C-alpha cells in the first residue's frame, strides 16, 4: 500500500526573502 503525502512549507528568512516549496512524501506501508 502506497500513500502520498502533500506538504506545503514556507520558510521566512529576511523580510525580502521567502522560501516556499511543495513537498511530496511517499511512504510505503505493507
Topology:
Elements: E1 2-12, E2 18-28
Antiparallel strand pairs: 1-2
Keywords:
two-stranded antiparallel ribbon, 2 strands, rod-shaped
Overview in brief:
The chain is mostly beta strands and 30 residues long.
Task: Describe it.
- By secondary structure, this protein is mainly β.
- It has one domain (1-30).
- The protein is 0% helix and 73% strand.
- The chain has strands at 2-12, 18-28.
- Strands 1-2 form a two-stranded antiparallel ribbon.
- A hairpin with a 5-residue loop joins strand 1 and strand 2 (18-28).
Characterize the biggest β-sheet.
2 strands, antiparallel
Helix count equals: 0
Gap between N and C termini? 6 Å
Briefly note the structural class of the backbone: mainly beta
Strand residue percentage: over 45%
The coarse overall form would be rod-shaped
Amino acid at each position: 500500500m502506497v500513500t502520498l503525502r502533500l506538504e506545503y512549507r514556507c520558510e521566512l528568512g529576511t523580510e525580502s526573502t521567502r522560501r516556499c516549496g511543495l513537498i511530496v512524501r511517499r511512504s510505503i506501508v505493507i
